[in-house]
TrEMBL record:
This is LysR family transcriptional regulator. Residues 10-67 form the HTH lysR-type domain. The keyword Transcription applies. One of its GO terms (molecular function) is DNA binding. Belongs to the LysR transcriptional regulatory family. Pfam families: HTH_1 (PF00126), LysR_substrate (PF03466). Signal peptide: none annotated. InterPro entries: LysR-type_TF, LysR_HTH_N, LysR_subst-bd, WH-like_DNA-bd_sf, WH_DNA-bd_sf, YidZ_PBP2. NodD regulates the expression of the nodABCFE genes which encode other nodulation proteins. NodD is also a negative regulator of its own expression. Binds flavonoids as inducers. It comes from Bradyrhizobium macuxiense.
Length: 302
């Protein structure tokens, strides 16, 4: 005789939908992400509501807000999905025949320093795997929590029981300037640095460089002469001027424009960390890719 259970309709696909709606706080956004009709999302959530005997989500403005029980269920569902994906992964991983996609959210710093060598190693070791890069721009933690990426790389912080962290590189800030700049003639003092003509890289207003907080703690306010959304035109803008930019040391090393690199009159470390979630924690491809990233970072720092 068949035994009917009230939890029979709860499958991995339904749990994925639940987590996605929770992360995006929107039925329509979840439908767009999964490339399905919104009615499909609504049907899945309505089915879960009946099984779990909880509203799960309530309308709030243009989106939805999770109930207390839904929040607890999502935490459990993330772990369950990760466990199931781990069980589905091959017992022995062979990168040479592996297929899949590794999506990394990172900034210009990582794309100029670590990613080129990582990409070359990935293509050589796992030629069937695909690499996708997202511009973090202050949103790396959101990319990871909304399952838009597999790895977040950079000076970010991702908090939660379902997320993992590995430190892979420590950088620090330096000054770059035209070799004819008077500040390039010797050691830069703090007062001379404060009076300099600064270029700020604003990351489109989404992230503030760490060194600005250190200066504020010393009651030093510097105003930008030029503000840029990112680093991509920095070398050409500084050349032939008295402008000074404060950027990570490894990024300055990667530049080819012949700019002068000088030490700052203060030191600010930059911790480059790698974050991932329970969703890919046991995936053979992603474990291999994380190890490869760590190897590249170790060699780069040597």
């Amino acid at each position: 005789m068949a035994v009917n259970s009230s939890v029979d309709p709860v499958d991995i696909g339904s749990l994925r939908t639940l987590v996605l709606v929770y992360d995006l706080q929107s039925f329509s956004a979840a439908a767009k992400r999964l490339d399905v009709n919104q009615s499909t999302i609504s049907y899945t959530i309505e089915r879960l509501r009946g099984v779990l005997r909880d509203p799960l989500f309530v309308r709030q403005g243009n989106g939805v807000s999770a109930t207390e029980r839904c929040t607890a269920l999502v935490a459990w569902a993330r772990d369950m999905i990760g466990e199931m994906e781990g069980l589905a992964a091959p017992a022995e991983f062979d990168p040479a025949i592996a297929q899949g996609t590794v999506t990394i959210s990172c900034n210009y710093h990582e794309r100029q320093t670590l990613i080129p060598q990582f990409c070359a190693r990935l293509r050589a070791g796992a030629p069937r795997a695909k690499l996708v890069l997202l511009d973090a721009a202050g949103h790396g933690n959101i990319h990871l929590k909304q399952n838009q990426c597999d790895i977040v790389l950079g000076p970010v912080g991702v908090v939660g029981e379902s997320f993992y962290r590995r430190h892979i590189l420590t950088d620090h800030y330096v000054c770059i300037m035209d070799p004819a700049n008077p500040l390039a003639r010797g050691r830069i003092t703090l007062s001379a640095y404060a009076r300099a003509e600064h270029v700020f890289v604003t990351h489109s207003g989404e992230w503030q460089p760490l060194y600005l907080d250190v200066l504020k703690a010393r009651d030093i306010e510097i105003e930008p002469a030029v503000s840029l959304p990112n680093h991509d035109s920095l070398e050409r803008i500084i050349a032939g001027t008295r402008l000074v930019a404060t950027i990570p040391h490894h990024l300055a090393r990667a530049m080819r424009g012949g700019l002068h690199v000088a030490s700052l009159p203060f030191r600010v470390p930059i911790s480059i960390d790698m974050y991932w979630s329970a969703r890919t924690a046991k995936s053979g491809l992603h474990k291999w890719a994380r190890g490869l990233l760590a190897e590249v970072a170790k060699e780069y720092a040597a």
